[in-house]
Write a structure and sequence with these properties.
This protein is of the alpha/beta class. The chain folds into 3 domains: 181 residues, no CATH class; 36 residues, no CATH class; 202 residues, Rossmann fold, CATH 3.40.50.12140. The protein contains 13 helices and 9 strands. The strands form 3 sheets. It has a 5-stranded mixed beta sheet with strand order 5-6-9-8-7, sandwiched between helices. A two-stranded antiparallel sheet has the order 1-2. Strand 5, helix 10 and strand 6 form a beta-alpha-beta unit. Helix 2 runs antiparallel to helix 3 and helix 9 crosses helix 13. The two termini are 57 Å apart.
Amino acid sequence: MLPQQKIKDLCSRLPRRLRSPISLTAIYAAFWCLLWIDAHVWFWLNRWLSAIGFISVVPVLFFWVRRHRKSSLLIRRGVLSAFYLPVWQLAVQLPLLNFSYALSISISQIGTIGAFFLGLGWTAWGIDHETKRVSTNSNYSHPWDPRRLSAWYFGKKNHKLRQSLLTLVSYTILFSIAAFILTRLSGCSVYESPLGGGDSIQLKQVVKIQKVINKKFVINPYSSVLFNPPPIDDVKLEVLEVTKHLYQIGQGKGDSTGFSSGTARGKVRFIRLKYNGGDWEQDMDRGSDLNLLTEYGVRTGHPVSDRPEPMEIGRLKSFPKRKSPPIVYMTGQEGISLSDMEIQTMRRYLLEHHGMLFGDNGGSSGWEGQFVSMMKKVLPRVETIDVYLDHQIHQIPYQLPRLPIVAPHGRSNALGWVVDGRLVAYYHPGDIGDAWADGHSGVKREVWESSYQLGVNIIYYAHSEYNKWLERTKK
């Protein structure tokens, strides 16, 4: 059966009032809104399912364009304008399939400008149309109505100009408010670690020596029977180097690797913070976050998400107290500009929600000062300390002989901020995000391998400490 016939059969089973194109499109619009919320708030669907959902707008658009191909120019423009938003969001989502966040952000910004002028055009047309209609109605007289040029606040001259200015200012304010609300939309987010257990012990390498003895044939050289003897092999030793998990990497008691306060559907996720003033998205297009997340899953056996998550700082407050991300990541090489509200949100996340901030200097000597200055605002009573190699974060699950530095930016040691014996913030000076990226930025294997190891250690440390807190405060 053809897909078109299947669709017709499916539609024929719906109630008659729901079979109309407007009703079906309204149902699809509700579905699209849920899809958009998931892509920005819930993150339940993987990136491929999300992209397929957004692509589904194409046949709907094609149907309405074809349906009104002989309609008036105004109606055709209205149809195309109505589909601007879903087509624009489709264009925003498609680059994310290849983790091209910079391109996605550029499309989002350009699309916002386009949406502003598109809406302004229709608003101006609507006001002008209503002004003409109201002016011909002699029975309609309201001195405050902005559709009437004789409204008292338009003054005694330049009525049309003042009406246009009022329309522009009012529309700009309303558009800005709507954009602010949508970009700050957070809903109720939930972070759950993978359920399991294990020990916080260093990974070890085991060398096994296996003795292999082959059969020997003893042949009588004086025998009258002639035959071709097989080759006589000597005893040889095979040295087998085996690297494996001698234990379950995790925290607490559980059947599989993970964390005792996690859930069966839980996954380790990697959340990168967006902020104003700098290039927060550095190296995301080169797969740095996803590569580290993948390596963490392979090396620990913990379930991990299939995509990294860029997130506004304000969204951290949408997570419940015991369902917050154990760690968030911040990098860049320019400035860091946080609002007072974002400072408060960060402080609440680190202290009340038991979170951890991982900062990585992306390539400038000035970024360290920016990060330290930000932390003085977030935690004004907490002093900065040096995090040496004997700290747990540099020992488990990988023991690091030295701090991996891809590109030095002033110092060679890590900095930390400690509250109640727990690292709540960790600063790395050497741009290890470059080593996680595709191609490892040309650094030596020992550098990018130790960079992965440090990343695994930090993620594990944050989740382990978070799990201990959940167990300790369990009711």
